[in-house]
Structures are given as structure tokens and as C-alpha cells.
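User: Second chain of the day. Same drill as before.
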Amino acid sequence: METLAIALLAFFTTGWSVLAGADLGTGMLMPWLGRNDRERRLVLASFAPFFLGNEVWLVATAGVLVGCFPTLEGELLSGQYPVVVALLAGWILRDAGLWSRGRGPGPRWRAACDAAVACGSWGVALSWGWLLAALLTGRPYAPATGATALLTALAVAAVFAAHGLGFAALRLTGLPYERARRLVGRSGHPWQSFALTAVLMGGPALWAGTALPLAERAAAPGTLGLLVPALLVVTPLLVAVQGWIWHTFRHRVTGPSYL
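Assistant: Same format as last time:
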């Protein structure tokens, strides 16, 4: 059961990195992809159907960590408290900007919400890189510091942005598409770039997981015996819903979203 619990944790963490990395990366570059209100609404429309479903993977990751590895969860989250707070703050800021954008009084309000989306997306990406820096340097129970932490956080954020560009090149039209395509490159299909950055998004998360003493910190066999089978039943449903969303909204966007 410990092996299955570890596999589930790795699956959900990698899934969040790849899926949410697309909408976060696009949000990071929204001020550059969209130069006016209509273009920014088009950029929002490219990931609006996906971001809530993608966030479920982060919630599932936290659920597996809390339920199957409670001791490790306490040690890790207490040691990485500043990083977790920064990540959650960025997440809340990004979502607040998304949900509030269409409910304000005028263009200044929308501009402020767009800034919240971009800044919050950068905050999540940099915080995730900061967390990975601690794991990759062998200090999972204390925030990473120094040049290594800074460079790792910036490198991870750059991969988020590249992943978002690949996603934008698949979904956008008009001038925002041209801007995304200019950086992605015109050789080959946009899916090639997106697939490459997906590997780059998921790889560090799996590598960082090897630094955690997962098998030694697993919950009692009785607890795992209840949780793991339930997770194995729910996981295919989550994958099926995610697949349906991506299939339904597989076409390029040509107009603004509801946000």
C-alpha cells in the first residue's frame, strides 16, 4: 500500500505541474500576449475552462499528503511555511483577479484584476520553484536560501512561462496568437512545444520527490488500506473529467470568456 500511495502522490503532483502550469504560464504572460482589454479577455478565454479543474489536482495532492503521509505533511509544511504561504497567496490573488474582473465598475478595475492575475501567477510559479529548490538541495524541512534557491525559482518560473506559451499557441487566435507563436517558433506543430515543456514541468517534481522519506513516513497500514483503494476508484473519474474538458475545449478561442 505504501508503494501505491507514493505512486498516487507522484501522479497528482505531476498532473498539477503539467496541467495547472499551462494556465499559470499563460497568466504570467497575459500583459505581453494581450495589449488591450479585448486581447486580454481573449487570453483569459484560452484557459478559463481549465483552471478550476486544474486546481483540483493540487487539492488532491494535498489530500494524499495529509491522508497517507500525515507525519511528513506536518514536518514538511511547518518547515516550508513561508513558501506555502507565498504559494497560497499567489493562488488566491490570481483567482481573485479572475473572478472579480468582470464584476467591477470600469477599465481601471479590469486593469487591476489583470495585474492580479499576472502577479498571482508569477507568485505561484516562483513559490513552486522555491519549494523545489529546498527538495532538490536535500533540505526538505527548511526553506532554500542563497543563489541556488533564487536560480532554481527563476528557472522553474521560466519553464512555467514556456509551458504557457505552448498552451497559448494552441488556443489563441489573432495578434495574441502571433505573439505566442513568435516565441514558440514556427517550425513544427505547437503540440510539440507543449509536449516538451510538459516533460520539463513534470520532471523536477518527480525528482524532488525522491528527497522525501515517503515510505518511512507513510500512515498506518490500516489507514492506507482505507484511503488508497478509495483514491484508486476516484482517480480514473478525475482523469476522465479532465480528458472531457480538454476534448470539449480543444478548439481555438475567437471571443472573450465569461470572466
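The CA atoms of residues 138 and 211 lie 6 Å apart.

User: Great, on to the next one.
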